[in-house]
Structures are given as structure tokens and as C-alpha cells.
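Open question from group meeting: does this chain pack into something compact, or does most of it stay loose? Before anyone orders reagents, we agreed to write out a predicted structure and look at it together. Recording both the input and the output here so the notebook holds the full record.
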Amino acid sequence: MAAPRQPLVVVGHGVAGLSAALAAAPAPVLLVNRARHGEGGASLLAQGGIAAALAPGDSTAAHARDTIAAGAGHNDRDAVLRLTAAAPAASAWLQAQGVAFDQDARGGLALGREGGHGVARIVHAGGDRSGARVTAALLARARAAAHIQWREQVDADALLLRAGAVVGVRLRDAAGRCEPVEAGAVVLATGGLGALFAHTTNPAASAGSGLALALAAGARVRDLEFVQFHPTALRADADGATLPLITEALRGAGARLRDHRGQLLMAFHPLADLAPRDIVARTVWQAQRKGPVWLDASALAPGWEAGFPTVLAACRAQGIDPRSQPIPVTPAAHFHMGGIAVDADGASSLPGLYAVGEVACNGVHGANRLASNSLLEGVVCGRRTGQVAAQRARASTPSGAATRLCERGPDLGDAERTALRDLLWRAAGPVRTGEGLRQAQVALRTLADSGWEARLATALLEAALRRPGSLGAHWREADAAPAGVAPVVGLRAGADAPRRAALEKA
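C-alpha cells returned:
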């Protein structure tokens, strides 16, 4: 029996996938996801908001400068300019979709400031519930859209190729039943790979399944070594589960990081606690060698918790009252700047295959993502990719050759996955060494044939080894430091030169 054919298949129910599916109208879209009702994705957990130059005195050029400076100058400049120029319109579009952004006392948009931003330019919805509010609004719009058909609790575990072009996906349900679905184009919006690390703010589903699928099909990838570690996850006994995020906006409101002696941790940096995330995360990592690190919110104005209901609930679940007690924090894998290499339209190196959101890499984030540019990217790039993919999907499907099935492969078992996550955290965490990366490579060889997660982790390690110097979130220490000399993992003159140059030239 011939596989059913859809004009466009979008894999993923997060902000990027929903934006793409909505923008594809009136072309019919099959929207598929592993979970139900948009659950299980990282978009729901996002506490940051949407970065946009909306304040008097701010500009899209200033937003671009901050994005490039945070990215250590490794960004694609044109991609950055497109994103920041589209940001004000993206926030207006979200409001038109039903997102109610928080307002200030005068009835205007309340603008917050987060790490790496020179001014307050972040709009939030429901305080630190922005991701959930934006996702809910887009889900409601997509549910009501006549052009979108839904398939939930299915996994896209293979791509269909014909004459070198992607012509569909294979869907597998929870019972193991498989169904090939042909399509004029496929958009992957499957999220990042943070769940491959032992400590992460990402949900378990964010283990890089879409990236592994594209690799299996031979799509080009880029910048796999750049993984952002958020400096302030709640240090909790989570038994390998997702660590609660303590949003950067809390530091924007005045909370301060302190070391085990109670000393301010970020006093050395001009932006203090709002330095770019890679610098703060490495500083916390280094300080933890001597003792615990805390986030102190005691100096915030009374009633601050009303704007941070998620943080308050997460702390209380651990028996902590953040209004009077310091919050124990730790770095955790948070965002992947690398991914499937795509152009400005989200098109990959394989005809018919598109990618958007965290699974994709168009160069906009460089070596380290600027805070609150992720939901923004999902909306801006998702809408663009949805429009372009729908238009190109109308072209005839490649014919004259047999259909080839490119499978991602089996999942690792629970014990093997736990071992991999521990290994990757130790070898490819906030601070890396060549020897540690090489040892992890050797250890993963025994798992390479057992599951796709090991092959994806190996590709990340290989990319990290190919970049011997430090840049942004990829930080390489010397394999052997002199005895008694602590390595400096914050600002470093040579390694931080690209970031300084970006500040001057952007």
C-alpha cells in the first residue's frame, strides 16, 4: 500500500513548530509530536520572555550588538540583524494570537532585563511562566486552524528519501506500529539535546532525537560543540530528573550570586550578575570546587515573588523559602547553539528537509545564546520557515528512484543512558579538557551500536575536539594546570577577544 501523502509535515509542538504550522496556511499541515497537547517540550518550561527593542532609547541595532557580544562574535551577522529587526513585530504578533504580556503601572509593557542585555527589553507573560503562556496561546490557535491535522503520541523515527531529497517520515506509535507518511516537505522542530547531560533544565524528551535523525540521513550540521549551561538551576535531589530553572530575570530584579563564604561571586565583571551566561556558569562551576554557591534574593523589594511564581513553587518544593533563605544553585545544560545547518529560510542541506528552533543552527546565537532570544527565534524563524516550506512543498515530489528509509536507530537502555549522561557531563560540561574529551570518546565506542544517543554524543565530542581553543560556551582548559594554580574560567584576555571585538564592531 502506498504511503499517505501530506503537503507538509511539522515534527514538534513547541513554539517553533506551532509558529511554522500556523504560518503554512492555507497549505494543509500534519503536526506530529511524541506527547499529548504540547506536553513534554522545553518551550513550556521557558521562564524567560521575548527580547525586543521596544523601550524609548533602545534599538534593534543595540539588540543585535548584545546578541553578537553574548555569542562571542561567532554569530552570523545577517541572521542576527534579521532576528532583532523582526523582534518588535514578533511581540505584536504574539499579542494578536492571545498572549497577554505583563504590564507596568502605566499600562504599558513591563520590560525586564536579563544577562547580556545592556537595557531592559524583555517582555514576559505571567512573570516567569512566559513559555507556558506563549505555548498555550499558540496551541489554541493551532487547534482552531482548519489547515492543521494532529497526530500525537507518535515518534518520527526515520526519514524517507528519494533521489537525494526528503519526501516524508516514518511514524512509530507507543505500541511499535509503524506508518510511512510521504510529504512535499518536512520541518523538524524537535528541540535541543540538554537531556543528554546528567544535570539539565531540559525535559527528558530534549535529547536530540531530531538532530540524530538528520545526521542519520546525511544532513549537514554545524557548531555541535556549543552547549549553553545555565548558571542557576536549583541544586536539588532530583534523581536524574529535570532541575528546576531559577530564571535569570531574578538576577535582573536584583538577586545576587554568593560563594560559600557569602562573598559576591560576580563582582569582578562589569555586568556583575548579568554577565553573559557562559561567563557566569563557568564562575559558578569554579566556585563550587570550594563549596556551595547561592543566589541571594533577600534584598529584593517585598512582594517580588508575585512575578516569579514558578521559582517560588520550585523552591518551596525543596523546603526553601527564597524570600528569607538563599537558593542553592548549580550550572545545568540548558540550550544547544549548534544543530542542523540551515539557511535563512530554515532549509537544510537535504532538499525537502527544514529545521527550526533549537534543533536548527542558522548562526544567530553564535557560541553562546543571549537570554530571551530563544522563544523569539522560535517565533520569527518558525513563521518564515513555515511559509517557505509550504510554498516549496507544492513542487512535484522527486520520482524515478526507490524510496530509501533512513532510520535514527534504537534508543539506549536506561542504564546505558544514565552512564552516557554522567560521562557527557564530566567531559563536555561548562569546562572541558582535551584529555577528558578523548577519554569520553573511547568510553562511548562500546555504546555506539547500542543507541542513537551515543552516536549523537560522539558527534558532539568530535566537534569539541576539533576546536582546541576556548570560545563562548565551549571552554577548554589545559590538560594539566600547574600545581596549586586555579584555572581562570571567567573573562580571559585571549579567549574573550572575539566578544570584545563584537562589542566594538557590531
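Observations to bring back to the group:
The longest strand covers residues 178-188.
The CA atoms of residues 42 and 264 lie 31 Å apart.
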